[in-house]
Write a structure and sequence with these properties.
Layout: E1 10-17, E2 21-28, E3 33-40, H1 43-54, E4 58-65, H2 72-80, E5 86-89, H3 94-100, H4 104-117, H5 130-160, H6 166-171, H7 175-183, H8 211-247, H9 249-252, H10 259-269, H11 279-285, E6 291-292, E7 302-303, H12 310-326, H13 328-339, H14 344-370
Parallel strand pairs: 1-4, 4-5
Antiparallel strand pairs: 1-2, 2-3, 6-7
């Protein structure tokens, strides 16, 4: 039930998001539970959730679990409704769930408390600009690369077991010549059966004659699939080149940063650069900031950070490898680090942290300028 009058209190709202239903809970400024309810994940359901929340008081902050997946719709609706204080809430840890239990209202109240206390303070990505376009394109690109890799692996495996002399002919060809030759193979078939007069089906080709013919047919289909995926990837890369160059010209101009690396780092940051306030926060987000590991007599010791966005970490690593190979300044920096007793792996981690700082300032320059 929605009260008839709106109390003059400030409240925090927590939302536990799902595919079909959003569970919402409201608490006041001292954490007292005011109520909870569930709403459909539709535009009408989003409006009902907003009205229900406003009926309990003035909304001070909203904590949403899963703003990048199921919470995208309600997050966008609340922002469009003028509620700017929206934060992303992490899923409760196992210890909390073991002692407190698990249900939609429990998770919604936990999200509200996390938002009110300030424990949850990450600003969600808006997902309404060029970076979101880049993210969606990379989804198709990633799946196309996986499919092409699988098709190439299968094609080479079929060639290894192909009958002679087909195997000997194809084994000596490079990738381009191999795909061209495989697309031109014509498997031998028996004469097609004569269609009956009362059948409306199109005539089928004759049956394959032997294993060599079946192998040729398989190689032809795989080669055509690879060619189709190559064309698809070329189209996607053209779109990504245009969007990335328009969105982040400063980032693209950095040594060792291409479209693939830049697009991944932009996705990690999001369209709103203000959500990451310092280069240290960006390095931690990318898993490039060392974790303190001091204990007892061990002082100023750090360990490798295995958290953060591993795709962004891999993008930074590719920049490091490129600069270590072609950039003399980076090579000299690596040599100075190793001269102090550090290993080559230690040097790579230190260089990666420095590059994260450089990348952060470039992204801030680009996104603040475009927004």
């Amino acid at each position: 039930m929605i009260p008839d009058s709106t109390p003059a209190v400030s409240i925090a709202v927590g939302i536990d998001t799902h595919a079909d239903v959003n569970a919402a809970a409201a608490i006041d400024q001292i954490g007292r539970e005011l109520g909870h309810a569930s709403f459909d994940t539709t535009p009408a359901g989003h409006r009902q959730l907003e009205a229900w929340a406003r009926s309990h008081g003035n909304i001070e902050i909203v904590g949403i679990e899963g703003t990048g997946v199921y919470g995208v719709g309600i997050c966008a609706h609340l922002r469009n409704a003028g509620i700017e204080a929206v934060v992303e809430v992490d899923r409760p840890d196992r210890k909390s769930r073991r002692f407190e239990g698990k249900s939609d209202p429990i998770d919604a109240y936990a999200a509200a408390r996390a938002a009110l206390s300030g424990r949850a303070s990450v600003t969600p990505k808006p997902r309404d600009g060029n970076v979101e376009m880049i993210r969606v394109l990379r989804v198709a690109r990633t799946s196309a690369i996986k499919a092409r890799t699988a098709a190439l692996t299968q094609l080479k495996a079929v060639i290894k077991t192909a009958p002679e002399p087909l195997r000997s002919e194809l084994n000596s060809l490079d990738r381009g010549a191999l795909l061209t030759r495989c697309r031109s193979l014509r498997p031998a078939r028996n004469p097609a059966p004569t269609p009956t007069t009362h059948t409306k089906q199109s005539p089928r080709p004759g049956r394959l004659c032997d294993p060599t013919a079946a192998t040729k047919a398989t190689l032809t289909r795989l080669a055509r699939r690879i060619a189709t995926l190559d064309d698809e990837l070329a189209d996607i890369d053209n779109d990504l080149d245009d969007l990335t160059a328009e969105t982040a010209p400063t980032l693209i101009s950095l040594f060792g940063v291409g479209t693939d690396v830049a697009s991944q780092l932009l996705i990690t940051t999001g369209d709103n650069p203000d959500r990451i306030t310092t280069s240290a926060a960006f390095a931690m987000l990318c898993g490039a900031a060392p974790i303190p590991a001091t204990s007892g007599k061990t002082i100023n010791r750090h360990r490798l950070n295995r958290g953060g966005d591993r795709a962004a970490n891999a993008a930074l690593y590719r920049i490091v490898l490129c600069r270590l190979r072609y950039d003399q300044r980076t090579q000299a920096y690596r040599d100075r680090i190793c001269s102090r007793g550090k290993t080559n792996k230690d040097a790579i981690r230190i260089i990666k942290r420095a590059i994260a700082r450089e990348v952060y300032h470039a992204i801030r320059t680009d996104l603040v300028h475009t927004t």
